[in-house]
């Protein structure tokens, strides 16, 4: 295998590994809240058995469907 072919294979492998891990999390949002609101979110999520990310995704999806 030539050096060019080895380099091409290495680049393809790197691109495959980036696509698997980086694609899903490319859209990241953050927000800051006060302690009371943060505790309310944590409590709700714990009662529902979901994590805050799932909760926020559901909240945003519902909000924009009603738009």
Task: Characterise this structure.
- It is a single chain.
- This protein has helices at 3-22, 35-48, 52-65.
- It is mainly α.
- The protein has one domain (3-65).
First-to-last CA distance? 57 Å
Whole-number total of structural domains: 1
Profile the largest sheet. none
What class, by secondary structure content?
mainly alpha
Helix content: over 70%
* Percentage of residues in strands: under 5%
What gyration radius follows from the Cα positions, in whole Å? 20 Å
Number of strands: 0
Features:
mainly alpha
Helix-strand layout with pairing:
Blueprint: H1 3-22, H2 35-48, H3 52-65
Summarize the structure.
The protein is mainly alpha-helical and 67 residues long. The chain contains 3 helices and no strands.
């Amino acid at each position: 295998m030539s050096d060019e072919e080895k380099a091409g294979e290495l680049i393809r492998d790197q691109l495959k590994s980036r696509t698997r891990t980086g694609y899903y999390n490319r859209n990241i949002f953050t927000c800051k809240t006060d302690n009371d609101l943060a505790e309310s979110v944590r409590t709700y999520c714990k009662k529902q058995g979901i994590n805050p990310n799932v909760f926020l995704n559901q909240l945003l999806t519902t909000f924009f469907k009603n738009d």
